[in-house]
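The authors assume throughout that readers already know how a fold can be written as discrete tokens. Each protein is reduced to its one-letter sequence and a matching series of backbone shape codes. I therefore recommend that a typical entry be quoted early in the introduction. For illustration, here is how one protein appears when written out as sequence plus structure tokens:
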Amino acid sequence: MIKHISSFVLIAIGVFLIDQNLKSLFLNGFRWNGEYISLILVFNKGVAFSMLAFLQEYLKYIQLIIFVLISIYLVYEKNIFLKYSLPIGILYGAGIGNLHDRFVYGGVVDYIYWHKWFDFAVFNFADVMIDFAVVWIIFVSYREKTK
């Protein structure tokens, strides 16, 4: 069990550090425009696709409460780490990165903008890692149920 929890912690720290270092590039002025993708700086005041932005300052506290409740659940359900320590570590590191942005910058620092053929929402490394972790968890859960 200690090995799984250690993996979770190390992965979470690693993802958080990568995320924050990438965001610091854009906060320090880096920009790039390409034909398909541009790297720009946007502060997302909502969640995915700027939904719930009307909650403004309350959103970060709502997310913090949800994060704490999930953490409490995981403390009591430690066996989850046996199967999901890596994807949960990725999810936590990315989630903490985005939550950190809300408290420090007033919104999530987003910077990847797809604009060829259609305009897509601006997103960041943490968003990609959250999606990756959720797909990983769903895949493992599905595989377990089909056995």
In short: The first strand starts at residue 32 and ends at 33.
